[in-house]
Amino acid sequence: MLFIGNKGVKMLKILNKLKLTDFALIYNIMELSFPSSEIRTYENELDLFKNANYHVLVSYNINMNIDGFIAEWDYKDFRYIEHFAVHPNARGSGLGSKMLQEYLNLDKKLVYIEVESQENQSAKRRIQYYQRMGFFLSGFGYVQPLLREIHSEVNLKIMTYPIKISEADFLKYKKEIFESVYK
Fold first, then answer.
1. Per-residue pLDDT tens for 137-157?
2. Measured at the alpha carbon of residue 89, what is the angle toward residues 88 and 92, in degrees to the nearest 5?
3. Burial class (CB in 10 A: 0-12, 13-18, 19+), 103
4. Which one of 3.40.630.30, 3.50.50.60, 3.10.20.740, 1.10.10.10 gives the CATH number of domain 2-180?
5. Could you say which DSSP state residue 81 is in?
6. For the chain, which residues make up each domain, given as ranges?
7. pLDDT in tens, 91-107
């Protein structure tokens, strides 16, 4: 299946809307990819689908298993990627970059992501990856609000695509996210 990206380029469609019956597959990838403090319980993640702004786009492989997903909150002026992960068996194949590029080509809205601000190799590689994909690292951030009872403090920095944001914009986006995602 082909689609036309925002730059007018024809591309093979990789991302599809999640079939809710496949939710357990993406939750498994979440558990393999994120510390428990960065994901909700199974039931609480599933409850997010009651919110009209919340969507999950997935990459199904030829066997109809999920190789990766992007969980997003779509707002009037921007889109916030809450989780983006590729199954460990599919990592290193370039799939994640193809998924993210297709996602960035969906429309012209600002895309907002959080990255860990800790100075470790994993966090540095993640920031560099997003920068290669066209994201800008801002000087703004916050401590991630509690997602479940077992929680270690996660300091986050904000990255945006395709432009840098001002402090006023950061505060506006942060308010929207804290009121709906982290409520």
1. 999 999 888 787 766 778 899
2. 80
3. buried
4. 3.40.630.30
5. E
6. 2-180
7. 999 999 999 999 999 99
